[in-house]
Design a protein that fits this description.
single chain; alpha+beta
């Protein structure tokens, strides 16, 4: 197995939620530093992205 630096490959920063498809390709990135889940709109936005990703998986 080959080690991969996912942080660099995905351009991730601290507190990023990286949403992947079933092939481990990045669908979206949601940063929790700028989008606090204490705000309902941010919580709903992240939930929507996660649900859409799950529904698109065969």
């Amino acid at each position: 197995m080959v080690a991969v630096d996912a942080w660099t490959a995905w351009g991730a920063t601290l507190r990023d939620v990286v949403i992947l498809d079933d092939q481990n390709r990045v669908l979206d990135v949601f940063n929790l530093n700028t989008n606090s889940l204490l705000e309902q709109a941010n919580y709903d936005a992240l939930k929507s992205v996660l649900v859409a990703a799950a529904e698109s998986t065969p």
